[in-house]
Specification:
350 residues, TIM Barrel, Type Iii Antifreeze Protein Isoform Hplc 12, 2 domains, 8-stranded parallel sheet, two-stranded antiparallel ribbon, 12 helices
Length: 350
Amino acid sequence: MMPNENAIDKLGPVPNLKCYLIAEMSANHAGDLSRALEIVHAAKEAGADCIKTQTYTADTLTIDCANDYFSIHEGPWKGRTLYDLYREAHTPWDWLARIKEEADKVGLDYLSTPFDRTAVDFLADLGVSSYKVASFELNDLPLLRYIAAQGKPVIASTGMASLGEIERAVRTVREAGNPDLCLLKCSSAYPAPPDDMNLRTIPHLAETFGVAVGLSDHTLGSAAAVAAVVLGACVIEKHFCLSRSIPNPDAAFSMEPAEFRQMHDDIRAVERAMGKVQYGVSAAEEGSAAFRRSLFIVQDMKAGEAFTAENLRSIRPGYGLAPRHYDAVIGRRAAGDICRGTPLAWNLIR
């Protein structure tokens, strides 16, 4: 699927494989190709595995109409028409080959979201290895069928979708003969409040549909992304910018490079910490094991003297018999003289 060794190459989370981190450029280039290329380099340095764009024009997404249906009434784009917003936010298609070339040069995967058949065909000619489906297009089953029929992995966001809508989307991809599907939990709010994330849905998606799962995250910060990895996410997608001070439609809910790097580092640390099912003394604990509790003689004793609560205690360190033997020893007698501070051993008991 993708050149980097990571969990999206498998069906679901796999121990010892990295979560796949997607940096979504979206409109953060603010209409400047040189800035778009700079974002590619910044994403690489911040630890991303993939740089993603969106492939649409205002005319492939909507129509130029200002009536109430096509006006935005709330959120960060309130007061704008859809056409006006998409005209500003789109990435010119003649940039995409250059962006992909730069991604190849620095060692990043390149991924894009097509929003109509012409974009699917354009990206196929560009040689993309996978397709991303946005939450808003998940209910467009003819488009989804066309994307799946390309025979390349599909990563689909599920924001706003009911369980039935997700089931229809999964069935559409599979009936097109494509087994390579990853579903991303998503809240399609910009930015998304933490209370709307419902991350417990992530393992439910994996169990219900038998697919790889992840998170398309529009919250501020990285807490949701890190928590998602603990719950089984093998893909994390975050909007990425050079600086939120650069005006564009996506800046307010995008991560800056230092923030993305911190998220990357936290996720990698969490992956290591999750480890495997393991009990007993670990290699890192070997130095501490000597300081566990054990049975020690705490008063000088003469041969034949009985062990009592006054001369035998469970204390640190751990060189004597295990404390579980305490009740069996109390009342028995010393095999010989024993000095205070001696760890109890079976040969000291008769």
